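User: We ran a pulldown and think these components assemble together. Before we commit to crystallization trials, I'd like a predicted model of the whole complex to look at. Sequences follow.
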Amino acid sequence: MAYCPCGTRNFDYKKDMAVFRTPFHWGALVILLGVLFISPAFLHGSIVNLINEIALISITVMGLNILTGFCGQISLGQSAFMAVGAYVTAILATRYNFNFLIALPCGALGAGIVGVLFGLPSVRIKGFYLAMSTLAAQFIIPALISNPFAFITNGTNSLRVPAPQLGSLTFNTPQTFFYIVVPIAIIAIYIAKNISRTGIGRAFIAIRDDDLAADVMGINTFRYKLLAFFLCTLYAGMAGGLWAYWLRSINPDHFMLNNSIQYLAMLIVGGMGSVPGAVFGVSFLLILDHLLREFALQMGVFFPTWANLFQQASTPLLYGLVIVFFLIFEPRGLAHRWEVMKTTWRLRPFSY
Amino acid sequence: MVDFLQFVVNGMMIGGVYALIALGIVLICKSSAIFNFAVGEMTMVGAFLMWTFFDVLGLPFFVSIALTLIGSGFLGFIMQRLAIQPLIGQPLLSAMLVTLGLSYILKGVSTLAWGNTTERISATIGGKPLFLGSIIIQSDLLICFVAASLIFIFFFFFYKYTDIGLAMQAVAEDHRTAQARGINVRKTFAIVWFIAGVISCIGGILLGFRLGVTQFLSLVGLKAFPAVLFGGVDSMVGAFIGGLIVGILESLGGGYIAPWIMEPIPYIILLVVLIFRPEGLFGLKRIERI
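Assistant: Here's a predicted model for the assembly, 642 residues in total across the polymer chains.
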């Protein structure tokens, strides 16, 4: 069910289900993608870096969206799964000289397998019990990385990762790395959007709304819950691998509980269960966070004693306030606002 | 053997405080089915308040304790009114996530207010260590444990026999029925959060004496979560025993395996418990019907 401009008619099912329905949609898409792809040429490096970060985090939040938004299972361990992906990718790249085109999928797969292991308790538990079992992943995985596996992961010291290379091309600047992370993010968004429109996605939504009813209707809830965990952590692993290539130096400290909660916050702000919402949430919060930190830096010139504190407090305050405000006042997130805006624009100047 | 007993005793002592903080979670969980993720930060704020009243303002010891308890109680009350109350009727997920958001706000505000240094409460509790055979019991830990147990027993009976406790029990059973019987559900929620604030602040004060008052005190909440789930979210006795289990596991794991395992080991065991007994060791098994 979609609202269309006047005069747009759907003559078959395929057309009815299309995401991009009108020539205007297609034109806008092509122009947007075109502008995006030439943007690194004329944007400042730090802005390109921010775009890279948004694309990278979008991938992991998109995974979380599949698990939490569509399937209704809470995960507080997203960044731990990212850590698995990051370390698998990094180890393959440094110790075995894998090309990034092979190392990234391996990392994603590794994270997916670990994710399924931690998803197993979801067979019997839900709600905050499940949140707890993913929280367990958040504690167990970084502890394992920094201690028993220290011989291969460098423990709490950073593990350096070489820049991704393809033939003679080296992707070692924000401008070049852009061409790895953004296409992968777009593919990830494309896949997530299409998962939500197929039988799998509908099964996820049925489980989210009432898993008992879904079970009675013949959906194998166990299988689909595990599938949701697998997809979610696959995305997380891919994002983690990209993270390793992005910073080119990874540390268990990059993947703590704070990060997992921030990803959840991004999902809430964007709107749970909405594919564009996840991207909105990530962009909104990351840009706001950067602006706030920049502001704190500027304030430091005037209030040197407070600058440090303000810088440390700004991120938790921002995320906390945003979570609480959005949950209370706009539980459907920015995606809902976006829909409202589109509808208003379509009906303009008649608001009915 | 002596080593083993020593580890168990140490674990039990610190586990008493975990149990107390877990009790704060269980009370809220029982009455409103909300898992309070902000409990660690509430604990930390309690310790900071105590330090402010006692060391900065120089108030007498017991006056500052009383003020701290009241202050933390009101903190819980305000959290409930501003953030939890508007979400009644929303999905459980929202209520849970809002407590995560609250924990972040508390973290940010306390960083702004108190900074990130380690402060010491200048009063000390306890004195010379006690010797039980060849087992050493540190007296400050013993005081923590005894205080935690006494408070626990107090709230156990409070919950069972006073009017407010019974009202809390009724609300826990069913909101609508409780309302129909003339219980003010909103007021009861407020009281529950007030009490939860007080309890977590007691934990904060006890830990503040031992570990110093820092931002890191909020990490104790992460020990209380597995404690709650070990016992089952709706069992007070379970919370107490869960807290002790977490303390003992931590101490044994740290002593016998390696120090790094102290943090994840409660969670490793928790995963096993969750798979085989999802309702916890003492929790009520809920059967779903269509």
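Chain A has 15 helices and four strands. That may be worth checking against your pulldown data before setting up trials.

User: Thanks, that helps.
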